[in-house]
Specification:
By secondary structure, the chain is an alpha/beta fold. The chain is 39% helix and 17% strand. The protein has a single domain, classed as Aldolase class I (TIM Barrel). The strands form 2 sheets. Strands 1, 2, 3, 4, 5, 8, 9, 10, 11 and 12 form a 10-stranded mixed β-sheet that branches.
Length: 325
């Protein structure tokens, strides 16, 4: 097929023709909206590094959840900022913890919206790491029981799905067993199976107040240079009982999403993370780019790479844009 016999531009001539042959379709059903919950009432604190996003008390979270539902988004993911922190993250699994109370409020107000909860310890520990620290070392195995307690407390509060993001080895199996033994075998696990030690997380750490107080997370998050390791991590979590495999971040790891899509047969989620969002928003604020166009192009690329669902801070805005188009 060579020019002049074949002219690809024929099928690009009109918007209708371009829609007819479009290979990748981004849908509102692909989107998951993250939210940040804090204790209190009528509190809405701007997140400086993430324009348009806030740490919100439960009443505002419910309002945003309703907006997500009205925009046609099927799910949200909830992160909590606790009232106090300690070495063992006890507020992460407390019955009256911020996530537990907020989940209950959301489910009372918007019962048919899927509520996913992030399961980790970093936002609840005074040292800011995702596991128990012993003499400056993250103790993997000592962290597993705590993570399972967190997941179970979220399920009891009404969460529809739990999403462990800690990257401790064996945590999916521990969570799955705990949920099953306590009668929550119907709760799916979305595993942050392929989570890289990325520079793109900076704004999120401000939003969730979860920066490590010493060192970094490279001993448990993945080296950005590695690809085969992603297959091993995903395979291990599948064998332990994960229902959905997540890649985080998304944009710099499209090749990883594609490889996983080719290798595994579970749904794949991709997290369009805070740094990706904030860079585009900052560019728009400087007058250099159209953030909405960039975000739509980015999410389409993530979907084209093989993601079945996308966690993105732009979910509500994108859903509205798709509805209007």
């Amino acid at each position: 097929m060579l020019f002049p016999d074949y002219r690809p531009r024929r099928m690009r001539a009109t918007p209708t023709l371009r829609r007819m042959i479009r290979e990748t379709l981004l849908s509102r059903n692909d989107l998951i909206q993250p939210m940040f919950a804090i204790p209190g009432n009528k509190i809405k604190k701007p997140i400086e590094s993430m324009p348009g996003h806030f740490q919100m008390s439960g009443d505002y979270i419910v309002e945003m959840a309703k907006q997500a539902k009205e925009a046609g988004i099927p799910a949200i993911i909830l992160f909590g900022i606790p009232d106090k922190k300690d070495p063992l993250a006890t507020r992460a699994y407390a019955d009256d913890g911020i996530v537990q109370k907020t989940v209950a409020k959301i489910k009372d107000a918007v019962s048919d919206l899927t509520v996913i909860t992030d399961v980790c310890l970093c936002g609840y520990t005074d040292h800011g790491h995702c596991g128990v620290v012993d003499n400056g070392i993250i103790d993997n195995d000592a962290s597993l029981d705590l993570l399972a307690k967190v997941a179970l407390s979220h399920a009891k509060a009404g969460a529809d799905m739990v999403a462990p993001s800690d990257m401790m080895d064996g945590r999916v199996a521990e969570i799955r067993q705990t949920l099953d033994e306590d009668g929550y075998d119907h709760i799916p696990v979305m595993s942050y199976a392929v989570k890289y030690a990325s520079a793109f997380y900076g704004p999120f750490r401000q939003a969730a107040d979860s920066s490590p107080q010493f060192g970094d997370r490279k001993t448990y998050q993945m080296d950005p240079a590695n690809a085969m390791e992603a297959i091993r991590e995903a395979t291990m979590d599948i064998e332990e009982g994960a229902d959905i495999i997540m890649v985080k971040p998304a944009l710099a790891y499209l090749d990883i999403i594609l490889r996983l899509k080719q290798e595994i047969d579970l749904p794949i989620a991709a997290y369009n993370v805070s740094g990706e969002y904030s860079i585009m928003k900052a560019g728009e604020m400087m007058g250099w780019v159209d953030a909405t166009a960039l975000i739509l192009e980015t999410l389409t690329a993530i979907k084209r790479a093989g993601a079945d669902m996308i966690l993105t801070y732009s979910a509500i805005d994108v859903a509205r844009a798709l509805e209007a188009s």
